[in-house]
Amino acid sequence: MEQAIEAEDRVLCRLEDIPEGGAKGFPGPPGSFVGLFAVRKDGRVHVYVNACPHIGLPLEPLPDRFLDTRKQVIICSAHGARFRIEDGVCVTGPCIGEALEAVPVRLVDGQVVVPASAGL
Ligand code: FES
User: Fold this and answer.
1) Residue 42 forms part of a structural domain
2) CA distances from 2 to 5, 43, 78, 104, 108 (A)
3) Where is the Rieske domain (predicted)?
C-alpha cells in the first residue's frame, strides 16, 4: 500500500537534503524549545530529539555539526558524550548507558517524515 503524508505528520526535508554520512538539525514543532536532528548512514535515516540525556542541552556546537570528525558517532559538544548513530545509546561520557530520544521516521516519496508532535 502506498504510504501517504497525514495531518499528524511533519515533513522535515527531502532525503537528498541530508548528505549520506552526514547530519542536519531542525527546529522543534511550534511550542517546543527542543529541536530535532537527523543522521543519514548506510541508506537509513535516524532522527533524534536534540537534547542530551546528560543535562538536556542541545548537542551541536555549530549548525548541523552533530557527528565526530570521522562521522562514526554522534557527539555532544557540552561534555563530550558520544552516542551510537544506530540507536542513540551513549557509549562514552557522563551519560553512558542512557540514550537520545529516538523519533520514528518514515520516507514518503523521498521526503523525511516524522510525527508532528516529535520534540513536544
Ligand atoms: S550535556 Fe551532553 S554531555 Fe553534558
Assistant:
1) yes
2) 10, 20, 42, 18, 9
3) 10-114
